[in-house]
């Protein structure tokens, strides 16, 4: 009994594992081309039957409540049928001739220029005349994968680049810069700003410095597509020199894309020497000190000359008075 059970289990495993999917993958980008194949190898646990009367491909779109027959092949009657499929799609009807046609009958639909509107459930169906019955493959949900397109980070004002890195700019301390991150894709995308310096990457800490614009909706290749933009704005400091700024596009907490931009910062320079100088506050204090010293020197000099001149005037007056007294005594 145990041996028989193991044999049956092994046989079932072989039958299931031999079933082939009707498509190679379940997600395709708009505009892609792929094949949907219907033959007996796509059916699980198909009962023995020498003749297949017909084979069909069924589809149920998201807007439909039931499956619709979109392509069918009946080899005995030499009939083919296609309905409700785009004109650029191609249908191949192969094999199926004769009574023992089980392993030759085949229906292949080549999907050309896949659109989001084509997404839905697909399955194959065969009709066996003796005994009369239908068999179906397991429905597969073919979905449209909207690609995420991210542009390079745009910065303003953008000056000379750092070396040969076109994604960089060198500006001066105190300049307010704006970095813009733009991207296109499905709904529910999010921009996350990061920065990296000396090997350490972190989320940008000042949330008030960036603004996420409202999503702009459009339809591309039948797909609902959204345009996104995020701006990061701040005033440069010397410590920003050499910092790498990163805009990461996130979808359901998973990173899907990123772009980077490097900032170079020139220090404040002395206008007379062209060399890095102190900050403006320090320069103003120095100028005030020098001015005060000059005023003090001038004041001391004026006082000195005033005292000397006054002393000379007094001495001259006393000498004149003495001479007058002497002259009076002579007379």
From TrEMBL:
<dbReference type="GO" id="GO:0007166">
    <property type="term" value="P:cell surface receptor signaling pathway"/>
</dbReference>
<keyword id="KW-1015">Disulfide bond</keyword>
<dbReference type="InterPro" id="IPR013783">
    <property type="entry name" value="Ig-like_fold"/>
</dbReference>
<keyword id="KW-0325">Glycoprotein</keyword>
<dbReference type="GO" id="GO:0006955">
    <property type="term" value="P:immune response"/>
</dbReference>
<dbReference type="GO" id="GO:0071222">
    <property type="term" value="P:cellular response to lipopolysaccharide"/>
</dbReference>
<dbReference type="GO" id="GO:0009897">
    <property type="term" value="C:external side of plasma membrane"/>
</dbReference>
<keyword id="KW-0675">Receptor</keyword>
<keyword id="KW-1133">Transmembrane helix</keyword>
<feature type="transmembrane region" description="Helical">
    <location>
        <begin position="285"/>
        <end position="307"/>
    </location>
</feature>
<feature type="signal peptide">
    <location>
        <begin position="1"/>
        <end position="18"/>
    </location>
</feature>
<keyword id="KW-0732">Signal</keyword>
<dbReference type="InterPro" id="IPR007110">
    <property type="entry name" value="Ig-like_dom"/>
</dbReference>
<keyword id="KW-0472">Membrane</keyword>
<dbReference type="InterPro" id="IPR051713">
    <property type="entry name" value="T-cell_Activation_Regulation"/>
</dbReference>
<keyword id="KW-0393">Immunoglobulin domain</keyword>
<keyword id="KW-0812">Transmembrane</keyword>
<feature type="domain" description="Ig-like">
    <location>
        <begin position="157"/>
        <end position="262"/>
    </location>
</feature>
<protein>
    <recommendedName>
        <fullName>Ig-like domain-containing protein</fullName>
    </recommendedName>
</protein>
<keyword id="KW-1003">Cell membrane</keyword>
<dbReference type="InterPro" id="IPR036179">
    <property type="entry name" value="Ig-like_dom_sf"/>
</dbReference>
